[in-house]
Write a structure and sequence with these properties.
about 170 residues, mainly beta, Immunoglobulin-like, seven-stranded antiparallel sheet, 1 helix
Length: about 170
């Protein structure tokens, strides 16, 4: 009988120990963080102005050299966002310029990016289909647009207009 009581006591202690282990739990807490990025903003600082051209001429405006074609004005976009963030830029490589009646001309664009409002030689060339260039430490980039316009010998006289669109997105 004493032996049965000892076995019952040992079983009771084991059962209580198992119940204690099963009821034990642990917790850990992880932080959840997010950074809401400021939206990219693009402003047109100046339009592309080719000026007066003669039939049968080719006009080249290098987006890396304001002085190459002094009669015109390069386009300039100002892009603002998060400082030092990588941004991918793209633009339309060809602009169809509409003129009198159904007359058209094609302006093949080129672009350069810089962190300075003033164009400086040797800045980053942007590919029309997409190039990554980081915003400056102040969160700005300036994109200059130039291009090539071939005016046919028989091009109808008059005013021609078209649009170049710059797209920027965080990379």
């Amino acid at each position: 009988m004493k032996r049965i009581l000892s076995i019952v006591a040992i079983c009771s202690i084991t059962a209580l120990s198992a119940a204690t282990v099963q009821a034990q739990s642990a917790d850990a807490t992880a932080d959840v963080t997010a950074t809401v990025m400021s939206l990219l903003n693009i402003e047109v600082n100046q339009d592309v102005v080719i000026g007066q051209v003669m039939p049968g001429t080719t006009i080249f405006m290098d987006s890396n050299d304001e002085d190459e074609y002094p009669d015109g004005q390069l386009g300039r976009f100002e892009v603002t966002g998060i400082a030092d963030a990588d941004v991918e830029y793209s633009y339309n490589a060809n602009v169809t310029m509409e003129g009198p009646g159904s007359a058209q001309m094609n302006f093949e664009t080129n672009a350069h990016a810089t962190h300075s409002e003033a164009l400086m030689h040797g800045q980053t060339t942007l590919n029309a289909t997409g190039t990554v260039f980081a915003l400056s430490s102040t969160g700005k980039t300036f994109v200059f647009i130039g291009g090539t316009l071939v005016v046919d010998e028989n091009q109808e006289a008059g005013d021609y207009t078209g649009q170049v669109t710059l797209t920027a997105e965080y990379h």
